[in-house]
Write a structure and sequence with these properties.
The chain has 390 residues and is an all-beta fold. Helix content is 2%, strand content 44%. It has one helix at residues 331-336, and strands at residues 31-32, 40-43, 50-56, 59-64, 67-72, 77-81, 88-93, 101-105, 112-117, 125-133, 138-143, 151-158, 164-169, 177-183, 190-195, 203-209, 216-221, 229-235, 242-250, 258-263, 270-278, 281-287, 294-302, 307-313, 320-324, 341-342, 346-350, 358-359. The protein starts with 30 loop residues before the first strand and ends in a 31-residue tail after the last strand. 40% of the residues are buried.
Length: 390
């Protein structure tokens, strides 16, 4: 009988080799172009890019994902295309001989862009376009003072997502001009604007549209002199929104009054305004829209030569308006702001005068009589019969 030797196999039955998937080792790449005609373009990729641009005189020092670049003579347009990814951009032009215009395209992803200018000279005419794209993005711009005749235009466009945009500018010199426009689209957005004092002939136009969502807007304005002009437009859109506006001394020329126009849109909104003084020609128009809204207005003094056109429409819903006239506003001041109030179910007026009168009775300002039968401020009593305590 013959014997055959058996071969032993090292293969284990049921075993299948697998490939291990390693994490992505792709290195982010940012392309920094060459300067052509004073223009420069910086382009990111689909990864999370980190770009820093710092001006030193006529030279830009650029850091892009760990790599260094130097470019000179960028005096026309600086364009940054961040592309997809959660990108970070910082541009500091506070130490430049001539600030270029800026265009920032965020693309998709949760991006953040911070822009800084120093003081802008009298020949400056700078525009900044921030296109945030989709995602929860943040944009901020800080600028120093605008010299006489200087111009600065800022436009921020937000896509879908919960975006935040802030613009802060110093004082505006004679005949300087600022335009700040924000269109933030859908999402629960936040917007902030701060502007310093406006000298004679200076103009500031602020136009904010937050779109749908529960939005928050905060605005602060310095002194607006007699021949300067502030135009402030805020559209809050649908949602439960909040607007807080503070002004120091608000004024305007009779032929070109300062204007504040607010449209809160549908939702349970809160709009609050307070001013130190209103001294010139001013028009204030507030529409609260449908919903149970609240409006608060405070001013310490309305000047004897001031002309105030005031309108408040509560819209549908159970609305409340509170007025605080401080210690200097007189009866005519209160009357000026109380003659054109409609669709407000409850009106409260606080007169911080010598007698401490607190008028709390108001039903519907569209029908309201002047609470002359139930209010005598000289005796400090509360009007009980009048729907208005003016």
């Amino acid at each position: 009988m013959s014997t055959k030797s058996r071969q032993t196999s090292n293969v284990v039955e049921g075993f299948r080799p697998l490939l291990e998937i390693l994490e992505c080792r792709t290195t982010p790449t940012v392309t920094v172009g060459t300067v052509s005609g004073g223009n420069l373009t910086i382009t990111g990729d689909g990864n999370d890019n980190n770009v820093s641009v710092v001006a030193n005189g006529n030279t830009l020092q650029i850091q892009a994902d760990g790599k260094s670049f130097t470019r000179q003579g960028v005096t026309g347009l600086l364009t940054v295309n961040l592309g997809a990814g959660n990108d970070r951009l910082k541009i500091d032009l506070s130490n430049t001989n001539k600030a270029p215009d800026l265009t920032i395209n965020g693309g998709s992803g949760d991006d953040r862009a911070d822009v800084t200018f120093g003081n802008l000279g009298k020949t400056a005419d700078v525009t900044v376009d921030g296109n945030l794209g989709t995602g929860n993005d943040k944009f901020s711009l800080v600028a120093g003072n605008l010299a006489a005749g200087a111009k600065l235009g800022v436009q921020v466009l937000g896509g879908t997502g919960d975006d935040r945009a802030d613009v802060k500018v110093g004082n505006l010199g004679q005949n300087a001009a600022l335009t700040a426009t924000m269109k933030l689209d859908g999402g629960n957005d936040k917007a902030g604007v701060t502007v310093g004092n406006l000298a004679a002939g200076a103009t500031a136009l602020v136009d904010i549209d937050t779109g749908g969502g529960d939005d928050r807007v905060t605005e602060t304005f310095g002194n607006v002199s007699g021949t300067s002009k502030l135009t402030n437009i805020v559209n809050l859109g649908a949602g439960h929104d909040q607007l807080t506006l503070h002004g120091a001394n608000l004024s305007g020329a009779s032929k070109a009054p300062s204007t504040i126009t607010i449209d809160a849109g549908p939702g349970n909104d809160q709009v609050s305004m307070d001013f130190n003084n209103i001294l010139g020609s001013t028009a204030i128009d507030v529409k609260l829209g449908a919903g149970d809204d609240r409006f608060d207005f405070a001013v310490d003094d309305i000047g004897s030569k001031a002309t105030v056109t005031f309108s408040l429409d509560g819209g549908a819903g159970q609305d409340r308006a509170n007025f605080d006239f401080g210690g200097q506003s007189n009866d005519n001041d209160r009357q000026q702001l109380g003659n054109n109030i409609t669709n407000v179910e409850r009106i409260t007026r606080i007169h911080n005068d010598d007698n401490g009168t607190n008028g709390t009775n108001g039903s519907n300002g569209s029908n309201g009589s002047n609470g002359t039968n139930g209010s005598n401020r000289s005796n400090g009593s509360n009007g009980s019969n009048g729907s208005r305590d003016d």
